[in-house]
From TrEMBL:
GO terms for biological process: phospholipid translocation; retrograde transport, endosome to Golgi. It is found in: Membrane. This is Solute carrier family 66 member 2. It comes from Perca fluviatilis. InterPro entries: PQ-loop_rpt, SLC66/Scramblase_ANY1. It comes from the Eukaryota. The chain crosses the membrane at residues 20-38, 50-70, 76-99, 129-148, 212-234. It is a multi-pass membrane protein. Its main location: membrane. One of its GO terms (cellular component) is trans-Golgi network. Pfam families: PQ-loop. Keywords: Membrane, Repeat, Transmembrane, Transmembrane helix.
Length: 243
């Protein structure tokens, strides 16, 4: 009888350790795909192959997810993941702005204060991206405060958050199509996207997270696969890209 109790306690301890490791991977794993892309941009001194609109999509998605958590408190892990992703996207934008300003031939700068929609999310200063996100956050906070008691609003907020997140790879897919090339895009980043999306979709299903999350994950996997197919289609030597 005592041996059965010991075995059960060991199994529970092992399960708790695995659960803790999975949670840590969820929090920090989302940022890992951007490490090779960050290194590629630093090494090449160019950000042309990377779509900064990926950052836009993820910033909006994760800001919305934080307010969704306020209205419907799900796993704390997912809240921490959102905070981590926001910090990661700011790091990517800061690097892209630095590189673009270093390589800029023209002295003409595009600023948020100009309110020129043609240059939306193509600003020269990193501070403009911070200002936009701050304004968007304040707007979300006001609306959420007014409608927090509405279950329909909270669910709609969650659906909107995961809809944006599901489109994470779409700007990169479009940029590759427009350039007819995947040059400058880290294939390692997309492979890590795919692995991460498969992992987190499985995590959502196993933890019975809101349905919006696993639907989002499934759509992301499809887009990841489409981008990998672009790599095969546009590249004459895939092995060079993977290196």
């Amino acid at each position: 009888m005592d041996s059965e109790v010991v075995v059960q306690e060991d199994m529970e301890g092992s399960w708790m350790l695995l659960s803790w490791m999975a949670s840590c991977l969820m929090v920090f794993g989302g940022a890992l795909p951007y490490v090779p892309q960050y290194q590629d941009i630093q090494r090449s001194g160019s950000s042309e192959g990377f779509s900064t609109r990926v950052c836009l999509v993820l910033l909006i998605a994760n800001i919305l997810r934080i307010f969704f958590w306020i209205g419907k408190q799900f796993e704390l892990t997912l809240l921490l993941q959102s905070v981590m992703m926001i910090l990661t996207m700011f790091a990517m934008l800061h690097l892209c702005c630095t590189v673009q300003n270093t390589n800029r031939v023209s002295t003409r700068q595009h600023r948020l204060s100009e309110l020129d929609f043609r240059y939306f999310w193509k600003w020269s200063a990193f501070e403009d991206y911070l200002l936009f996100c701050f304004g968007f956050t304040v707007l979300c906070a006001v609306v959420t405060l007014l409608l927090l008691d509405s279950a329909v609003f909270v669910e709609a907020l969650g659906s909107l958050a995961v809809m944006f997140e599901a489109m994470l790879g779409f700007p990169q897919l479009l940029q590759n199509f427009h350039n007819c090339s995947t040059k400058g895009m880290s294939v390692k980043m997309v492979l890590l996207w795919t692995a991460g999306d498969i992992f987190k979709t499985t995590y959502f299903v196993m933890n019975e997270s809101p349905a919006q999350f696993w639907v989002c994950g499934s759509v992301q996997i499809l887009i990841d696969v489409a981008i990998l197919l672009q790599v095969l289609f546009y590249s004459q030597d895939t092995r060079v890209k993977l290196g």
